[in-house]
Design brief:
Low-confidence stretches: none
Radius of gyration: 19 Å
Order of helices and strands: HHHHHHHH
Structural class: mainly alpha
Number of strands: 0
Number of domains: 1
CATH topology: Methane Monooxygenase Hydroxylase, Chain G, domain 1
Shape: globular
CATH superfamily: Phosphate transport system protein phou homolog 2, domain 2
Largest sheet: none
Length: about 240
């Protein structure tokens, strides 16, 4: 995903201001692409017991942290220099909010990588990996769609991400019950199943952060804050 000049709210008298807003969106999307790839790779490292890949993901964490700090600084400089109003201000403020969610997605990918190494070292059955594959497919779709919604300023797509979050929560709860059954059947499964539960929890949190990004996209486009509201209320806002 890339941002084009048409993706910025509109042309301003200052071409430099246009370029600054475009650069902010582009850097945010670049960071989004990185953390999206990290989640995919972390799950792959887990499923394939690929310790080298898991270590690579863990080492990328500092790069994500640096990107967050750079984007925050860029956004604050735009506010100080341009004193944006209305939709431009919503764009800049939303990026500051959303970049924090991306950094936390990177943290969750690092956590999955850590458990991938632990589970690989245990070297036993892959109980719960089917659930991991299933939920990871959904949350990575949510993350991708939330970034796409941001790139295209598409509040309708953002709303679909919000709707998908409830399904992920339900799937997480069902997967946790399955793992609990494995632990009850054989105490030797407890340690491994607990690790897989933490992986599933990390994936569920990725879905939550994708939902947060989607909520901010709706705020950018519609000018109404839908955080802490129901999906039905968000649907009414998007439909206006």
């Amino acid at each position: 995903m890339t941002a084009s000049r048409d993706d910025v709210y509109g042309n301003h008298i200052s071409n430099q201001f246009n370029d600054e807003l475009l650069a902010l969106k582009t850097r945010f999307l670049k960071m989004g692409g990185l953390v999206e790839a990290q989640v995919d790779s972390a799950v792959k490292a887990l499923i394939e017991a690929n310790d080298a890949l898991a270590e690579e993901i863990r080492s990328e964490d500092k790069r994500v942290d640096r990107m967050e700090m750079d984007i925050d600084e860029e956004a604050m400089l735009i506010i100080a220099r341009r004193q944006p109003t209305a939709r431009d201000l919503r764009l800049v403020v939303s990026v500051i909010r959303m970049v924090a969610d991306l950094e936390r997605v990177g943290d969750e990918a690092k956590k999955i990588a850590r458990f991938a190494i632990r589970l690989s070292e245990e070297g036993r059955s892959a109980q719960g990996y089917g659930e991991v594959r299933h939920i990871s497919a959904h949350v990575t779709d949510m993350l991708h769609d939330s970034l796409d919604a941001f790139a295209r300023l598409d509040s309708g797509l953002a709303l679909q991400v919000m709707k998908a979050d409830k399904r992920v929560d339900e799937e997480y709860q069902a997967a946790a019950r399955t793992l609990l059954t494995f632990m009850m059947e054989d105490a030797r499964n407890i340690s491994r199943c607990l690790s897989v539960m933490w992986v599933l929890r990390a994936l569920e949190r990725v879905g939550d952060h994708a939902c947060n990004i989607a909520e901010n996209v709706i705020f950018m486009v519609k000018g109404e804050d839908v955080r802490h509201t129901s999906v039905e209320e968000a649907e009414r806002v998007v439909g206006r």
